[in-house]
Amino acid sequence: MTYLIQFIELLYWILTIAILVRVLLSWVRFDRYPAIARLVVQITEPILAPIRRLLPSTAGLDFSPFIAIIALDIIRRLLIGILGKI
After folding, report:
1. 6, 16, 27, 82: which has the fewest C-beta neighbours closer than 10 Å?
2. What CA–CA distances, in Å, run from 57 to 6, 41, 54, 60?
3. Could you read off the pLDDT of 69-83 as tens digits, one per residue?
């Protein structure tokens, strides 16, 4: 059971860091994105796109990374809480 909890923790941190890197990449414009930037976009887009569709547009600010990180934390805590009781 501890391996599953450790996997959930690792996945949470990988996704959180990927989202933060995506935010930082959005501040920098490249003519051609490096391969690592494309990888980060491919990892984070399935998480961020549904949140963007639900949020109203707010003067060009994208709050989806903030909401995604909060949602990931809530899911992580719920899963660990459920697994801790088993």
Report:
1. 27
2. 36, 21, 9, 7
3. 999 999 999 999 998
Cα-based distances in Å from 42 to 32, 56, 73, 85: 15, 23, 20, 34
CB 80 within 8 A of CB 55: no
Q: What residues make up the domain containing 26?
A: 2-85
Q: DSSP letter string over 3-71?
A: HHHHHHHHHHHHHHHHHHHHHHHHTS--SS--HHHHHHHHHHHHHHHHHHHHSPPBTTB--HHHHHHHH
- Number of domains observed in the structure of the chain: 1
R_g (Cα) of the chain, nearest Å: 15
Question: Quick one: angle between helices 64-85 and 2-26, nearest 10?
Answer: 180
pLDDT by residue (tens digit) across 19-31? 999 999 888 876 6
